[in-house]
Amino acid sequence: MSLSDAYMELLGIKVEAVGAGRAHLSAVVGPQHLNLHGSCHGGFLYSLADAAFALASNSHGVAAVALSTHMEYFKPAKAGDRLEAHATEENLGRRTATYRIEVRRGAERVALFTGTVFRKEAAGS
Fold first, then answer.
1. Domain Thioesterase: where (predicted)?
2. In this structure, how many other beta carbons lie within 10 angstroms of the beta carbon of residue 44?
């Protein structure tokens, strides 16, 4: 499994660490990530969290695809802020798994993403 894709690279998202059921990513909010109010666009925050979700959920060697996601936005972020997405596995089942991703600026939680994936069967299973 690749630890990056063209979309992550376009947005400036960096992989800090990936392990079984977890991922840690980071990105710096640039002027291209701002909305019409001058704060970080919600789509950028979602993309950062979703990338961590994808890496964590695919870390077990079985292809996983999203079934559902939800995002709560708590605090605005601005240009220059370094954001981190920390994904943790909340439940791992045979066919589905659920993840919690916190988007943080230092110790401050900016947003919370939750998602559930469908785990495809491995070849020969």
1. 37-110
2. 22
Domain count for the chain, please give it. Answer: 1
For 67-110, the pLDDT digits (tens) are 999 999 999 999 999 999 999 999 999 999 999 999 999 999 99
Residue showing tokens 């947005």: 11
What letter represents residue 114's amino acid?
A: T
List beta partners, residue 73: 111
**Burial class of residue 73, CB neighbours in 10 A (0-12, 13-18, 19+):** middle
Calculate the average pLDDT of the chain: 95
CA distance 124 to 111: 39
Per the domain annotation, does 27 fall within a domain? yes
Tokens of 33: 């990530």
- The verdict on pTM exceeding 0.85 is yes
Q: Tell me, what CATH number does 28's domain have?
A: 3.10.129.10
Show Cβ contacts of residue 123 under 8 Å, excluding neighbours closer than 6 positions: none
